Amino acid sequence: MTDIKGRDAEQHTEDNGSPVDESRPASDVVLVVEPLLPQRLRRPSDALRFFAALIALAVVILLALIAQETLKGLESDVTEGTARAPGFLAGLAGFIGGAAVLAVPAGFAVERVFHRDGLRVAEGLIAAIAGMVVSFGLGEWLVTYGPDDLHQLFTGNRSNVEPLNTLLTSVIAYATAVRINRRPTWRTLMWTAVAIDVFALFTGVAATVLGVIVSVLVGTAVGFATLYGIGSPNTRPPGSAVVAALRRLGFAPAGARRIEDDTLGSRRYVVGLRDGRRLDVTVLDRDRQVAGLVYRIWRRLRLHTESRHRAIRSLRAELEREALMAYAAHAAGANIPRLLGTAEIGTDAALLAYEHIESRPLEEVPDEELDDDVLRRIWEQVRIFHDHRLAHRHLTGESIHLANDGRILLLDTRSGEIAAGDLLLRLDIAQLLAYLGLRVGPERSVASGVAVLGPDAIASALPLLQRIALVRGTRAAVARTKELLPSLREQILALRPQHPVEEEVRLERFRPRTLVTTIAGAFAAYVLLSQLSQVNVGDLLGSAQWGWAAVAVAAAVLSYVAAAVVLMGFVPEKLPFGRTVMVQFAGSFVKLVAPAAVGAVAINTRYLQKRGIPPGPAVASVGASQLIGLVSHISLLLLFGYITGSQAAPTLTPSRGLVFTLLSVAVLILVVLAVPPLRRLLTTRLRKLFSGVVPRLLDVLQ
Asked: Chief localization class (predicted)?
């Protein structure tokens, strides 16, 4: 969430939100120490709605281009249907629609100004002006430079039709920016006026179906873009409202201080009570529910049902989930701060009040303090959870705390599950193994888990020791420590060498590389089919000389064999001949969607890595084979050119595209070399990649 306005200074307020009056008795004043909340916020929900409108706009235009005849038929039906309306009714609709579409926004503006909410009206006017400019600009572009198909679909080849209706776009942008949809009465009036106006446009043949739909979508996108750019008024309740809610729960707060937000971005307060006790209060803000939504949706699409979190939950559902997990964990006997109460704070927030226990998060505990006894106590708490079928699902250094009295506390149970299945419990074990492995090493991590849970439970997590199964922060750390997961697997297998190894559990529906491959394959198929559509395949096959075709096929097959032999010649390790030939054949398909040399180098390098050859030697072998192939190719060109008597062109003029590409690459290289962090990163990566190239070439020559 981005703050638009606000200062980092701390505010001291009473529980009613007013400044502290020092003349009043101290017993009536509750000091709340917290940074001043910003007056305006950029809400992620507005950005998401903006991008959703853009996606819908792209989909509509794409469908219109694909189904042009269908759209033209729909356009004809709409025109004929509205033309049957009586002239009096059409004229009345035009008058009422034109007046209402202006009167309703004006009436809403007057109502808001009367209630001293003129700033919202100003935001709406900014959105309306922006919508008018965008609509006019897009319309002029379509008329002057746009494709003929789009021009015809937007205007119907009628001179009196605007591609995008400027008035409609502005009104929709205004209605979106003032959030008129949150007011049921005004929302009904607004959309009724828009419907009448659109009907009048159709009866007057002054708009097209596509133009109206796109005008609405563009107006919606402009409205949400304005809301995100300017920001929305901050509706988060301040600390004084939190204190007031605690009073309604029966507590007697004496003071409150805001502390660091939790791992999920929720506000936290430490509240002192008059009887000397303290509370840890977590505040769930409604506008935080969509934070990270894109990432959660991506995970929801990518992962199977049991291993994923729900992408969207309401504020009430989030509150009930955390409270239920807290009560269940406490009833199970786990060390968790006791939940003392929950309450709503108005309509935009809710709180959970826990007992306060002095503790430190494990990430702040030095590694030397993580002795075997601490590790044992961590695993014991996990065992208590699992014995009662509770999955924590966020076992990280932020959620595992070491209390001052030596107890281990498991906090942040909002992501947990009750009545959890075996998969979720095994995911907990895999996550904790990985996190402790990062802190104390794989050997101690596995040994401490086995001492508490037993070898069978730890071995059950072996198929889930994969990056995709870990929490986001742990996953990033594991990516930097690539040897961790293999080391954990080795330690677990060493415990039960005779135990059959279970296959890796497939948590993903698909992998990103699969998605990229599918898109690239679809693009290649589109290019191939578009080329074949220009050729009469029947005539081509009928006139073909099949003898020479067989020779061509044999020569093509031999080219793959030759490429495989060349690659095998530069690799000291033994490679299977058949598999190597098939890799060269696969490389020919990669060349359809990638530059020829790049595709061949990439697929051959990946093939050698799959055969167990390190990246450096693999690059050296492939690079040497490509270099020899280039020298041989140029030599053959020169030889056959000499034999046929042809001469090279006296000059070689590169194309503009090639010159632009070379200059761009040169500028990029200069930028990388000029920025020290980028230069060090590039040097480190290249040194790791090519450190074994020279020894590798010497091995090949020997």
From this structure: membrane
